Structures are given as C-alpha cells and as structure tokens.
Amino acid sequence: MNTLSYGLLSLLNKSPRSGYELMQQIQLFWPARHSQIYPLLAKLQEAGSVEFIIVPQSDKPDKKVYSITQAGKNLLREWISQPTADPINRDELMIKIFCISLTNLNQAELLLSQRECYYRNKLLFLNEKIERISLLAGAPLESLSMHNPSFGSYMLVKKAILNTESNLEWCKWAAMMLRNS
Amino acid sequence: MNTLSYGLLSLLNKSPRSGYELMQQIQLFWPARHSQIYPLLAKLQEAGSVEFIIVPQSDKPDKKVYSITQAGKNLLREWISQPTADPINRDELMIKIFCISLTNLNQAELLLSQRECYYRNKLLFLNEKIERISLLAGAPLESLSMHNPSFGSYMLVKKAILNTESNLEWCKWAAMMLRNS
DNA sequence: TTAACCATGTAATCTGTTACATGATTCA
DNA sequence: TGAATCATGTAACAGATTACATGGTTAA
Fold it and tell me: What pLDDT digit, counting tens, does each position of B127-156 carry?
C-alpha cells in the first residue's frame, strides 16, 4: 500500500469508477499515469480492497468499473490517522530562474510568460470545476458541511485555486522585477 | 543529465560547494537526498561539467569542493532555452482531506492544525532566509537587478513565501469550514 | 485521413527513498 | 553517554515515466 493506492481508494470511496476515470481524476492531487494505476488496481482487487464489474459499452470500449469494499474503507480510515508526510513540490522553472543571469532578458521574459499562461489556463479549468461542484452539491459552497459528498472536492479545488492565484501573482511580480533590471 | 543534475549545476554556477552543502541547499527547489547527489556529482565530474578539490578541515571531516566548468555553464545555458516541464506537487494531506468524512471532526482538525504548524515554521525559516539574502545583496531587495548574484535566490524565496502564505490561508479557511459543520 | 479520445494492459528504464557503512566533533 | 552535525559513499528497493501493444469511435 503506497500513497497512490490510498488516493485511488479515496476516489472510489466517493463512487465507483473505471481505471481510466481514476487516472483522469487523481491528477489534481496525485499525478500518475495509467501504467501505474492499472497494476495497482489489480493488486488492490487481489487484496480485497476493491472489486470490479465489467460494464459493456456500445460506442466505446468496455470498461472495468471498480468499487471500494468495506475492507478498503477500513484501510483508508486507518491510514488517515497515521502521520502525514510533508508535501513535495518540484519545479524545473525555479532552477532556470535561479540561474537566469546566464541568459538574456528576452529568454527570461519568455519563460515567465509561458508559465503565466499555464497558470491562467489552470485557473480557468479550476473555476469550471468549482462550478460543477456547486451544481452537484445543491447548496451554497460556503455553507457545505463536512458530510456533504462534495465537501472533499471543494476543499481540494479551493486549495488549488489559492495556490494557482499565488503562483500567478509571483509570475507577474517576477516579470516586473525583470523589466526593472 | 536529469533535472537534479541541472539543479546542482545551477547552485555551483553561483559558487563552489561541497556535496553536503549542495544537498542542503537544493531542498528548497528540488528535494533530494545525499545518496542521489553524490553519484550524480561523480558523473558530472567524469563528463567534465564540474571539477573538485579536496579541502582538508581540522574540526570537521575533509570535504570535496566542487566548481562548475565552462562546459558545465554551456550545458546549463542550453538547457534553460529548452521546453520547461510542468511543476509537480504531491501532498498526502489532500488525499486525506478529500475523504475526511470517513473520520470525525477531531481527527480532521488535528490534521489541519499539524499542517498549519508546518507552514508556520516554514514561513519563519523563509523569512530568516530572505533577511540573509538582503544582507548579502547589499541593496534593497525590491530594486535588485537580474545580474545581481542574489537575484535568483530572491525570486526563489519570494515564490516559496507566497506559496506558503497561500497554504496557510487555506489551512485557516479549511479549519473554519470544519467548525461550521 | 489524421488526430483525439476511450479503454486496458505490460516492459524497460529512470528517479527517488531507505538502509547499510564509517568516523570525527560538538553540545546537552 | 547519547544525540546532532559534518562528511562521503554504496546497495537494495520502491515509485514514476516512457515506450510498446491493441483497437474501436468520433469529429475536424
């Protein structure tokens, strides 16, 4: 059981999903490729933490829809009470910015504007996401209770939005610092 | 040449350092252990990107002090102009918060307060760091030019501070959301 | 007709963590 | 006396990425 396994269980704890859907939806809090997810799902199934049914589809390929078992829920609950590892952030851009004096102003401005664009798109995506959560929750988001099924998603997306906004702010500040050079 | 290698080169581009010092100083932008760094330094040296001298110390163990070579600088400069990978963030806490409804309010509040404490300490550390940069730079930080040797560090620490503040903000907001449950 | 999306899987490789190994100095 | 810091290295293992493999549908 590694962290990604718990991530998969946490999604399945909300509702049954296929491996493909899990792969798409876990990106926001634990980036992973399908080649990592499919073998883990098989292991979780062998261990009795999840089970699946094959759902035939006419327009698309058939899919395996996984559900969490009671054993899986217990595992997840136990894990929550164990010590939490520190967050890990790795960003190539910060290395490049750190030694930006090796290149010229244009290069530096390009790097920053590309990243600003990335964060802008991310914000658009996150705002769409929060609107979808709002519709699903059926209540004003600010008054959501911990037991509302949408609560977890809201907390997650809210954090992603705050972080992305602070990153955008930094991009603008950094570009300004460059222009004043 | 992987990203960590460029991270090491970017530090050596500022000034010569030992493997041990590199290990400590790279944590802020690319977390890595000494067991990853020492073999990479050996490879970089074989490739002619860095060189080292052994500096004997009386009170502490002798150390290898590495410097970047011209070839290393060229490598680094070329790398900056190549496409930049998206940033990667992984945080166990977000998985736990996502399925927090499995546990009780106390558990949830504990998780958040522990993380808040972590971010508070990080902020203290970063503020100390920025003061040291300020002393070193010998000029008001807000007017630092791109070619000042402290510019890169300032950009880096500034981003870390903005991010940590936004994370702290989220922690407080999330705790409030819980209390209103 | 070409690319994108849906859908699942395995193999090879690279990256990162934990553990093993050694040994001096300093501080509580 | 025991823990922490300085200092460098290797080995084993776990985690993550890229590439290989297959094949249908849909929209530009």
Answer: 999 999 999 888 899 999 999 999 999 999
pLDDT of the residue at B57: 85
- Which chain B residue shows the shortest CA-CA distance from A91? B87
Pairing of β B17-18 and β B63-68: antiparallel
Q: Is residue B170 part of a domain?
A: yes
Q: Dihedral of CA A66/A72/A73/A78: which sign?
A: negative
Which of A46, A80, A114 is where one domain is finished? A80
Q: Are residues A99 and A169 in the same domain?
A: yes
Number of domains in chain A: 2
Point out the nucleotide closest to B59 (alpha carbon to C1′): C25
pLDDT value, residue B118: 95
The 3-state DSSP composition of chain B as helix, strand, coil percent (nearest 5) reads 65, 10, 25
The residues of chain A scoring below 50 in pLDDT are none
Check residue A83 and give its pLDDT.
95
Rounded CA-CA distance B99/B107 in Å is 12
Q: What are the tens digits of pLDDT across the range A127-163?
A: 999 999 999 888 899 999 999 999 999 999 999 999 9
Q: Identify whether the C-beta of residue A6 lies closer than 8 Å to the C-beta of residue A80.
A: no
The b-or-e profile of A102-116 (16+ CB within 10 A means b, else e) is bbeeeebeebbeebb
What residues pair up with B17 in beta bridges, in sequence order?
A: B66
What CATH number did the domain enclosing A12 receive?
Answer: 1.10.10.10
In one-letter notation, the amino acid at residue B74 is N
Name the amino acid, one letter, at B97.
Answer: I
Which of A13, A91, A153 is nearest residue B102 as measured by Cβ atoms? A13
pLDDT tens for B45-87 read: 999 999 999 998 888 888 999 999 999 999 999 999 999 999 9
- Note whether A99 contacts B118, CB cutoff 8 Å: no
DSSP line for A113-129: HHHHHHHHHHHHHHHHH
DSSP for A91-104? -HHHHHHHTGGGS-
Residues 112-171, chain B: which have Cβ under 7 A from strand D?
none
Torsion angles phi and psi, residue B72, rounded to 5: -65, -40
